[in-house]
């Protein structure tokens, strides 16, 4: 049995890696990180032209009709590049419509989202770490929605926001709707900006199917994939630095303590690849295992990302703590991946409950 990627998936990875390397090298990443822009619109447009904006969208609506594993592979590449992009929220908005939207809602939005003509995002979690769909309190009454969503990615640029509602439901909120207030959130990860969304009886269009849990699970898998990509990049960066940084007349890669640390980092990260692969596969093919697999992948891999980021700082020594060192991009991205959609402890508890432990 072949547990590897298909030729098409390998080609997808190679294509996205090449695009990211050309369009957002480290120098451009630093400009975006230090600047005020959420992301580079030209890079996002290029991603849309490659078909990435519509990866999870059915071919009937102009998308690629691919599975979550394919989208997760792209998320791994974006994580490895720490690419500032609205891909996470946009992909989840597409999945939300695909999973829970009516035919009319799909016709109205999916072709535009798939083509990159419209940008989507999601507003899921609420105050007090209320990331689980069962704990959402935002309510819809007579086509009007009220409440607060404190952490919404790229909300200021989005044409469509998919809002999580009480009972695990979802509702569509269009740009420019009355009763909508957005405030920037000063987050640590400047590659993925957040806004606080306050809704005061704003007009919305509820989705007929309560697909909130499915969208949450897809988000957990994509965050796990992003974390894996970022963690493995830190292993590579640390190994390269150790080969070039000299002390006492020789590269620090020759020091036993550094070699052991690098080996531990690699062993921590590489085996976790299968966790997110399996969780993505389960999302589309093993519904009875999907929720638990997503929780396990998110909790484990994002925790490994934080651990490897700490190790990378130590390998880089004094420079590893500075703004000038690229390790900071990944350390801060690790903090986002760990916290967004719920921390490891929350999902480990859920995984235990789902397993009837």
- Work out the count of structural domains: 3
Strand order of the largest sheet: 1-4-5-8
Query: What is the straight-line distance between the termini?
Result: 31 Å
Task: Report the order of strands and helices.
Answer: HHHHHHEEEEEEEEHEEHHHHH
Reported for the largest beta sheet, the result is: 4 strands, mixed
What is the β-strand count? Answer: 10
- Looking at this structure, what is the CATH superfamily of the largest domain? Butyryl-CoA Dehydrogenase, subunit A, domain 3
Strand percent estimate: 5-15%
Note the total helix count: 12
Q: Just give the CATH class of the largest domain.
A: Mainly Alpha
Let me know the average pLDDT. Answer: 95
Q: Remind me, CATH topology of the largest domain?
A: Butyryl-CoA Dehydrogenase, subunit A, domain 3
Radius of gyration: 20 Å
Q: Outline, from the CA principal axes?
A: globular
Q: At CATH's second level, what is the architecture of the largest domain?
A: Up-down Bundle
Helix content: 40-55%
Can you give a write-up of this model?
- With 357 residues, the protein is of the alpha+beta class.
- Helices cover 53% and strands 14% of the residues.
- It contains twelve helices and ten strands.
- The protein has helices at residues 7-23, 26-34, 41-49, 68-81, 87-100, 103-115, 212-244, 256-269, 273-285, 287-316, 327-339, 344-354, and strands at residues 120-123, 139-141, 144-153, 160-165, 169-174, 180-185, 194-203, 205-206, 246-247, 250-251.
- Strand 4 (160-165) and strand 5 form a beta hairpin.
- It is globular and about 75 Å long.
- The two termini are 31 Å apart.
- The relative contact order is 0.12.
- The model has no long low-confidence stretch (mean pLDDT 95).
